[in-house]
């Protein structure tokens, strides 16, 4: 019996090994064939004779179905791809707003009556890669929505000019009236969103929900799908809120000072030995992440609440306050859409807001990253297209055209297909 089982396992192992070998051989053949990106695969996009960004002759349906030949082509493109999408090229394109709007399809977005009656607000906190910001904006764009862009005061002059061009060409996009110099894990990152939220509350658009995003996020749902999902929240908020671990508690138990560092972020909050006083008003602490889906009533309440203002001031000298601020105040008794303190943890996988793939959880919770990693976070590759679209989340992070331009191109194509599908059943105004 043991010998029989061993032989069966050996046969299975041999079959798996043979399949892996055949797949490897196929990819090597593709690698040889496409060792340089042929002109037939590269489809540069031009407007008025000026280069915009590169597109590739790739079959996204085959990528979605994990066809080895097409996935192999995407790997070669990724290997040979040279990023040419500069902030300056976007600025040049937006010099002629009508042509830019037509070229990028902002004038051809279906808006159903349901979407008109349920506008969404966005807070976009960004600092680099103007084309990626524009592609994110285009992917979530609807004329019925309102978009606040907060750029980092430390951003390059060309990036800031490009953000200004977007607001000049698109009437429902504006720059935050107050802007921060954003430093990693400091209060400035939280204040950037708060500045946008304050402006959005005072805009003429009576949005129902607000969603915050960064420049390396991308949607996995079309606008009309998001409207349908948001309606089902029935006034509740959606974000991660969990009991803090001992290591997370140190972030707000001790005083932190913003100090210069050789690290890429220039300055970082550094822990001191000075203990902080307990949170004001007897607030019970929870942790989560910086990203949320919040109702207008919740934001309006937060904007006028003395308790929230005191808690914000108390959080000034903590590490990464955006990762406890929202998670804690959504648990405050009496806030609109309150999550009771007695309710169990809502993890980032339970909340549909934003899908992040952590390297240390790959193989156990997620399939392996097919792109690259930065600080233990996966920058997605084309091999994750199907997984991303079917996991159930509304947005995901991180995306970077320098790592994999094919995935972003295919996500854009898939979202446009969904838009057209809904256009066929919705009456567009």
UniProtKB/TrEMBL annotation:
InterPro entries (UniProt xref): Glyco_trans_14
Localization of this protein: Golgi apparatus membrane
Keyword Cell inner membrane appears in the UniProt entry: no
Segments passing through the bilayer: none
Pfam families (alphabetical): Branch
Gene Ontology molecular function terms on file: acetylglucosaminyltransferase activity
Pathways involved: Protein modification; protein glycosylation
Keyword Secreted: no
One GO term describing the cellular component: Golgi membrane
Superkingdom per UniProt: Eukaryota
Alphabetically ordered keywords of this record: Glycoprotein, Glycosyltransferase, Membrane, Signal-anchor, Transferase, Transmembrane, Transmembrane helix
Membrane-related topology note: Single-pass type II membrane protein
Family: Belongs to the glycosyltransferase 14 family.
Protein name: Uncharacterized protein
Native species: Mola mola (Ocean sunfish)
